[in-house]
Design goal:
The protein has 523 residues and is of the alpha/beta class. The protein has 16 helices and 14 strands. The chain folds into three domains: 144 residues, Nitrogenase molybdenum iron protein domain (Rossmann fold); 136 residues, no CATH class; 196 residues, no CATH class. Belongs to the bacterial sugar transferase family.
Length: 523
């Protein structure tokens, strides 16, 4: 959503990387604004939905904290009255744990409010909402521990050590459920900022498409203004008509019940004209957002620095060295070794099943291209007949409805064995790649390792995939897998290469488990 004051501007991409890592770049169904939506009046839109949603969150936060804190108190002490003692003074003071529970709940609610966990700029999408909830909880826990030490408060340690982690967990679950509800509302064009785009035709078209990809982000485009455009024509394949009169912007906002103006490019607008535009907006109700010509940039790489009244945006160049790389490799070694040990009985059973079901080797070794363009042998459980490679040329001539012009994917590939079909459905054929990870040729998370024949069809920019190690899983696997087009696959892989982080890797691993269980796009 926009800034709270009319002349405050922020970058549309300023969310947290680990938030946007999944949400922003993953392909989503495009939601276009119908003709009826573009003709709504202000009376049909609730201007106070942000405050009302914040009250929803406040109420459920209170219910969660009461349930957790008093639940832990009852589980730990029972229903008997129990006192704790504050010592270190001439007159020791004793208070009940019920009083302490009330104090903790009140302080926790204040901390959640002070940290802005219910602010409309952070709720509904991205990781920042969860991070703020965690920050408020952890800092409150630290303050209580410090106060208990300084004033020598003698209370049961287990009571506190259980209440705070459990409270944080249930708060996160509550926020997640509210987020699912809000996403449904936004898919139905409710509880969203109603946006007017201002800029060149190319820039407003691009941004409208990007916002339509992710309606859960809460930006619903209801009108566009292109100063040098063709008045009355439709924007792309939408029902949004193009306006060219910037002076009539306030009238347009009233007619469309819009509350946010996004300036997508300033080529046609002088700096003074943009300032006048910000002055014309109603403070607190109408918001101005500046969207620079940046796409697929993660939040931590963006830093805003005002210089002489200019909001300069610094974009860090991605680096593939140092502490982050060491942490990633350490995590790969530890996690792959543990998984191999835990899964070793299952790996042996699967190997026996593959060996006994059809003639051929247990493992399928295939040369793939890894980091810096170096080839390596990737391992998989064999899921096809032993002469699958010799049959490939005949299959490549068939029509591929998946629409991927580089990677060969076939939904009902006749080369796949019965046990191989089961392994592929749950991605179990990929498990031997844990040995690739342990050996250092792959990572748990990264771009898909391509075949050499595929690399020969790459455009120049696609070679940036080789700046990091290929992974067992990645953004494309959790965003549609084999159902994706080649363009979407490249876009997701390059986004990961440009913006990867350890927290982002953990999110992808979590979503991988859900994608495997859903079995969507696996063949």
């Amino acid at each position: 959503m926009g800034e709270q004051h009319g002349n405050h501007k922020h970058c549309l991409q300023s969310g947290h990387l680990n938030a946007r890592l999944i949400a922003r770049v993953a392909p989503a169904r495009v939601v276009r604004v119908p003709e009826s939506a573009t003709s709504w009046t202000s009376s049909s839109v609730d201007p106070n939905w942000r405050d009302r949603y914040a009250r929803y969150l406040m109420f459920t936060d209170l219910l969660v904290l009461v349930w957790v804190v008093f639940g832990v108190q009852i589980a730990w002490f029972g229903f008997a009255a129990t006192d704790l003692t504050i010592t270190g003074s001439l007159n020791d003071v004793a208070i009940s744990y019920t009083t302490l529970s009330v104090i903790i709940i009140a302080a926790w609610m204040l901390a959640l409010g002070a940290y802005g966990t219910r602010g409309y700029r952070v709720v509904g999408t991205g990781f920042q909402e969860y991070r703020l909830v965690a920050d408020a909880t952890i800092r409150l826990f630290g303050i209580i521990a410090l106060v208990a030490f300084l004033f020598k408060i003698d209370f049961a340690r287990g009571y506190i050590l259980i209440a705070f982690p459990l409270g944080l967990l249930v708060l996160g679950a509550s926020r997640w459920m509210w987020r699912q509800w809000l996403n449904v509302q936004r898919l139905n064009q409710r509880f969203s900022s109603r946006v007017i785009l201002v800029g060149s035709l190319d820039s407003v078209t691009h941004l409208e498409q990007e916002l339509a990809r992710q309606p859960e982000a809460g930006y619903l485009v209801v009108a566009v203004c292109v100063p040098n455009g063709k008045k009355g024509s439709l924007l792309n394949d939408t029902q949004i008509r193009i306006s060219v009169d910037l002076d009539a912007l306030q009238t347009e906002m009233q007619a469309k019940a819009a509350d946010t103006v996004i300036v997508t490019s300033s080529d046609e607008l002088a700096p003074q004209r943009i300032r006048e535009l910000s002055w014309s907006l109603e403070p607190g109700r109408q918001h101005l957002v500046m969207a620079p010509s940046l796409t697929d940039i993660g939040g931590p790489r963006i830093h805003t620095r005002p210089v002489s009244g200019l909001p300069l945006i610094h974009v860090e160049t991605p680096r593939y060295e140092g502490r982050k790389l060491f942490a990633k490799r350490s995590f790969d070694i530890t996690a792959s070794a543990l998984l191999i040990m835990v899964l070793s009985p299952f790996l042996l059973a699967t190997a026996a099943g593959v060996r006994l079901s059809t003639p051929g080797a247990v493992l399928f070794r295939q040369e793939r291209i890894g980091i810096n363009g170096k080839p390596f042998q990737m391992l998989k459980f064999r899921s096809m007949v032993s002469d699958a490679e010799s049959l490939l040329s005949g299959l490549q001539s068939t029509e591929r409805p998946e629409g991927n012009t580089v990677m060969f994917k076939m939904k009902n590939d006749p080369r796949v064995t019965p046990i191989g079909r089961f392994l592929r459905r749950y991605s179990l054929d990929e498990l031997p790649q844990l040995f690739n990870v342990l050996g250092g040729t792959m990572s748990l998370v990264g771009p898909r390792p391509p075949l050499e024949r595929e690399v020969g069809q790459y455009e120049t920019h696609v070679h940036r995939r080789f700046l990091v190690k290929p992974g067992i899983t990645g953004l494309w696997q959790v965003s549609g897998r084999s159902n994706l087009s080649w363009e979407d696959t490249v876009r997701l892989d390059l986004y990961y290469v440009e913006n990867w982080s350890m927290t982002g890797d953990l999110i992808i691993l979590w979503r991988t488990a859900k994608a495997v269980l859903a079995r969507e796009g696996a063949y």
